[in-house]
């Protein structure tokens, strides 16, 4: 791998970790020229269905795009990069298991949001706020109410989960 910072051709692997029972590998690398440290992931490439968007257009599944959205939503939250990549790995397996040629973008959005909710409800609310296209704030609140259900909170209130403040 080339260095993403100075583009030197040689970078050293300083740590290798096997993830998801050998389904993925994470490597920490260091550039010997500029000392930049960065992380790479290796995953299996699967034949994934095409995504059908709400307006009917088709596009290829873009892992990086979802990772970008999730990383933004999880900024300063207790969700690790490994958890984000693990979530997408699960999504890819889920999509491959469906054995279909096309899949609605809604299916993907719902899967991601459900899994993100389990990891961190605050990140979920943030992700939902850029994922949904809202006409107005009322729509947004309505969607939140529909999608966050008390039974999923396992007895903890929204205050405990950090979604609402005490006052
Ligand atoms: Zn470098």
What does this protein look like?
The structure is a single chain. The protein has 167 residues and is α+β, with helices and mostly antiparallel strands. The protein has two domains: 1-43; 45-145, no CATH class. The protein contains five helices and six strands, in the order E-E-E-E-E-H-H-E-H-H-H. The strands form two sheets. The protein has a three-stranded antiparallel sheet with strand order 1-2-3. Helix 1 packs across helix 2, helix 1 (63-73) packs across helix 4 and helix 3 packs antiparallel against helix 4 (121-131). The longest helix has 17 residues, at 81-97. The protein is globular, with a radius of gyration of 19 Å. The structure holds zinc ion (ZN).
Describe the SSE topology.
Blueprint: E1 11-19, E2 24-31, E3 37-43, E4 50-52, E5 58-59, H1 63-73, H2 81-97, E6 102-104, H3 105-119, H4 121-131, H5 137-147
Parallel strand pairs: 4-6
Antiparallel strand pairs: 1-2, 2-3, 4-5
Helix pairs in contact: 1-2, 1-4, 2-3, 3-4
The structure holds zinc ion.
Residues 3, 5-6, 8, 31, 33-34, 36 line the site of zinc ion.
């Amino acid at each position: 791998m080339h260095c993403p910072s100075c583009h030197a051709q040689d970078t050293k692997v300083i740590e290798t970790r096997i993830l998801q029972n050998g389904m993925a590998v994470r490597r920490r690398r260091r550039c010997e020229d500029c000392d930049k440290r960065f992380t790479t992931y290796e995953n299996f490439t699967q034949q994934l269905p095409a995504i059908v968007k709400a307006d009917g257009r088709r596009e290829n599944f873009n892992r990086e795009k979802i990772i970008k959205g999730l990383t933004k939503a999880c900024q300063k939250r207790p969700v690790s990069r490994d958890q984000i990549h693990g979530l997408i790995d699960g999504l890819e397996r889920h999509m491959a298991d469906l054995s279909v040629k096309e899949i609605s973008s809604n299916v993907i959005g719902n899967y991601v949001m459900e899994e993100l909710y389990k990891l961190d409800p605050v990140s979920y609310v943030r992700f939902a706020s850029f994922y949904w296209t809202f006409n107005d704030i009322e729509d947004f609140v309505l969607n939140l109410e529909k999608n966050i259900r008390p039974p999923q909170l396992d007895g903890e209130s929204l205050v405990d989960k950090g979604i609402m403040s005490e006052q």
